[in-house]
Design goal:
Number of domains: 3
Order of helices and strands: HHHHHHHHHH
Strand content: under 5%
Helix content: 55-70%
Shape: elongated
Number of strands: 0
Low-confidence stretches: 1-25
Structural class: mainly alpha
Distance between the termini: 91 Å
Radius of gyration: 27 Å
Length: about 240
């Protein structure tokens, strides 16, 4: 399952000194307290938490393990989630977290990648979203129930339709329908995905026809442009 920030009611004895401390002078104890402070502030002051956690990342490079750094980046994502209007920053932070989880946890990497994909999808950046959906959904052990995976495929397919990749969209919709096929609560979703797949395949046929016509026209144009082999008439 994707890593979640641990909940804690503990507070550092003197939080202000960790917020104002110099990153370069942070030892293990100060670093631990900075992380603790940032984690404790996630719920009430996420902007403060984000600042502390980013300082912890800088101070912890070369000290913390790869997994500890990855978890810090997940906490930064959580902190930005609590700050409305920062969708672009959230998507960027999610991708940074995904990169840090690569090689450590495929599920966590996929989770953060798909978070960024959904943000781009909601913002109408369908081409960027499609790339991220493809990357995230390729994970064999997605940390979501089947209905949610079906919805992710629906969003992915919608992005592909938006960029006129109809055949690929139809395939993605059909895969999504498979995830919704055996859940009684997902009958409408299953039906919608199959209908979307059929519509995408129907849309692909005119596109393919236009492409064939264009290819034929280009070929005829090239043939007409070639010099003809004109031979003089045979003399009697």
């Amino acid at each position: 399952m994707p890593s979640r920030p641990r909940e804690t009611d503990e507070r550092p004895a003197d939080p202000s000194r960790f917020v104002s401390s110099d990153d370069s002078g942070s030892g293990p104890e100060a670093l631990s307290a900075l992380i603790e402070f940032g984690t404790a502030r996630l719920a009430d002051t996420p902007a403060v938490a984000e600042g502390a956690l980013r300082r912890a990342v800088r101070a912890g490079t070369g000290i913390l393990s790869a997994e500890q750094l990855a978890r810090l980046h997940t906490l930064i994502v959580t902190a930005i989630c609590g700050q409305p209007g920062r969708e672009a920053d959230l998507a960027a932070a999610a991708l940074v977290a995904a990169d840090h989880w690569q090689g450590l946890s495929a599920a966590d990497a996929a989770h953060h990648t798909l978070l960024a994909a959904r943000i781009h999808y909601r913002s109408g950046r369908h081409s960027a979203a499609a790339v991220l959906y493809r990357r995230g959904l390729s994970c064999p052990g997605l940390p979501y129930p089947a209905p949610e995976i079906a919805i992710l495929h629906e969003q992915f397919g919608t992005c592909l339709v938006a960029v006129r990749r109809y055949r690929s969209a139809a395939t993605v919709f059909e895969i999504g329908a498979g995830f919704a096929a055996h859940d009684r609560d997902c009958r409408d979703l299953h039906r919608d995905l199959l209908a979307a797949a059929a519509a995408a395949r129907a849309a692909a046929r005119p596109v393919a026809m236009v492409r064939r016509l264009l290819a034929g026209a280009v070929a005829r144009g090239r043939a007409a442009a070639r010099p003809r082999d004109v031979r003089p008439p045979l003399s009697d």
